[in-house]
Amino acid sequence: xxxxxxxxxxxxxxxxxxxxxxxxxxxxxxxxxxxxxxxxxxxxxxxxxxxxxxxxxxxxxxxxxxxxxxxxxxxxxxxxxxxxxxxxxxxxxxxxxxxxxxxxxxxxxxx
Length: 111
Hints:
By secondary structure, the chain is mainly α. The chain has helices at 3-23, 40-66, 74-87, 89-108. The longest helix is centred in the middle third of the chain and has 27 residues, at 40-66.
């Protein structure tokens, strides 16, 4: 796979993975929670897990493109985690603000 395809593909995968914990109600994307909705701690753990999955995909793409993995310091990982948090913003806003406003608006409108 060429870099011209791998980089946009990784960005799309990152965007989807960063938003999944806030869009879906299933725990670990498999089963429904007993209480009806996931807690924020579960969402945060899923988000960190998705960060790990995306990091593994990126490492695989780097290995395929260069034949080796470049050593990265802690600064790199902090910046990448912050970028992943920025990518998660649409799902977070949808979950905590936009969804409630849409539900309120739907209730106000007469059918």
